[in-house]
Amino acid sequence: MGGACCPGAAAQGPTSSQADPPSKVAKADPPPDVTKCAIVTVSTPMLYACNGKTYTAYKLQQLREAAEAARATQVRP
After folding, report:
1. Among 77, 71, 74, which residue's Cα sits nearest to residue 30?
2. pLDDT tens per residue across span 1-14
3. Phi, psi of 55 (to 5 degrees)
4. Which of 16, 24, 37, 50 is 20 to 30 A from 30, comparing alpha carbons?
């Protein structure tokens, strides 16, 4: 990323002051549950509609695993 397309353009991204604090990240919504989603297409890959968005089964798995990893790394008071 960065200013490869435009000479002199600065890279854009969150700075430490713009990043979400850990408490806000910890309170994020849980990932969609495939059992509570509607099947959109029965093909390869299967598509599910959850909370107004369309996800593949693989993407739902990635979201679930990321949420589990975030919970595992949270510091308990």
Report:
1. 71
2. 444 444 444 444 44
3. -130, 150
4. 16
